[in-house]
Design brief:
Shape: globular
CATH class: Alpha Beta
Radius of gyration: 21 Å
Strand order of the largest sheet: 1-2-3-7-4
Number of domains: 1
Largest sheet: 5 strands, antiparallel
Structural class: alpha+beta
Order of helices and strands: EEEHEEEEHHEEHHEHEHEEEEEEEH
Number of helices: 8
CATH topology: Chorismate synthase, AroC fold
Helix content: 25-40%
Length: 364
């Protein structure tokens, strides 16, 4: 089972949704970085359930415990293990689904592959696995901010058919966190809230899009040919639960443009390095960062677990109707924002260390 990612900034997550806990081991973080629970917990708080009426009401505090790799508030350069204990898992809520394959879940595919699955909560396929990614992303956030000055910020830009108009060059974290939807457009956020609440009342769910910007990434990060920066970002983001699409810069919109429109003209920059007058490339050219903001979008499907009746089958191959019970998000988008940020941060931290190794620079 592939639970590890990264080359130099190596991340391995562990645990199941209804087990004793979930967590992560981060190997490759440079030494002497100031790090404590207070650096990790804010991102976990943004991801945790029960934070607003728009998300699942599972009551988890998601308090992180740093088990290794840190002494006297400084990283040692050795693996950093972090654990979050599960507290409010009600496994009995899944008893009626023990012999049923939930539509659009990983129940059937997991059982087909391994011959066994964790019925309660979906095991490793649960979004609760992303706690480890968010904790690792928080380490990467601290590392990149202090050593390189990189900032990564995501927001909800679409829920169902409600689309927000947000300027990626100026949006702030305070604007994103001002509303439970994590949409920085007041008008769009209000419409998104109404749509999500209506979906919950209807026993249905909604999908949408998270947009993310990475500011301050120097030119040259990325490893052509197979480890292009956008390729690694795509892998990290498409491995997130419920993600269904990824694009960087103009994305699929480039297919309807001409070269004259799509090309990003270069102009002399104030620091002597080239700058571009547009950013259809999304900050990445030839698989390497070009010094502009990296701009990407991730599409998420509607939550698969809904309370409306759905056609499915049992292990024995009998046709049945499922009406799922339990506490589930009617829309994953608000909680997906810190998860998207974490995925981007882990990739950028890995490529920063790879570039530093190429240049022979000590990342301290």
């Amino acid at each position: 089972m592939s639970s590890s990612t990264g080359t130099l900034f190596r991340v391995t997550t562990f645990g199941e949704s209804h087990g004793g806990g979930v967590g992560v081991v981060v190997d490759g973080c440079p030494p002497r970085l100031e790090l404590s629970d207070a650096d990790i917990q804010p991102d976990l708080d943004r991801r945790r359930p029960g934070q607003s009426r728009l998300v699942t009401q599972r009551d988890e505090t998601d308090r992180v415990e740093i088990l290794s790799g840190v002494t006297d508030g400084l990283t040692l350069g050795s693996p950093i293990a972090m654990l979050v204990r599960n507290q409010d898992h009600r496994s009995g809520a899944y008893d009626h689904m023990a012999d049923i394959y939930r539509p659009s879940h990983a129940d059937w595919t997991t059982e087909a592959k391994y011959g066994i699955r964790a019925v309660a909560g979906g095991g490793r396929a649960s979004a609760r696995e992303t706690i480890g990614r968010v904790a690792a992303g928080a380490v990467a956030r601290k590392l990149l901010a202090e050593r390189v000055g990189v900032e990564v910020l995501a927001w909800v830009s679409q829920v169902h058919d409600v689309v927000a108009d947000v300027d990626p060059s100026s949006v702030t974290v305070d604007e994103v966190e001002a509303d439970p939807t994590r949409c920085p457009s007041t008008e769009a956020a209000s419409a998104m809230t109404a749509a999500i609440e209506q979906a919950r009342r209807d026993g249905d769910s909604l999908g949408g899009v998270v947009t993310c910007v990475a500011r301050g990434v120097p030119a040259g990060w990325g490893e052509p040919v197979f480890d292009k920066l956008e390729a690694d970002l795509a892998k990290a983001l498409m491995s997130l639960p419920a993600s269904k699409g990824f694009e960087v810069g103009s994305g699929f919109g480039a297919a309807s443009m001409t070269g004259r429109v799509h090309n990003d003209p270069f102009v002399p920059g104030p620091d002597g390095r080239p700058r571009t007058t547009s950013n259809h490339s999304g900050g990445i050219q030839g698989g390497m960062s070009n010094g502009e903001d990296i701009l990407l979008r991730v599409a998420f499907k509607p939550t698969a677990t809904i309370s409306s009746p759905q056609q499915t089958v049992t292990r024995a191959g009998e046709a049945v109707t499922l009406e799922a019970k339990g506490r589930h998000d009617p829309c994953v988008l608000p909680r997906a924002v810190p998860i998207v940020e974490a995925a981007v941060l882990m990739v950028l931290a890995d490529h920063w260390l790879r570039q530093a190794a190429l240049e022979g620079a000590a990342p301290r």
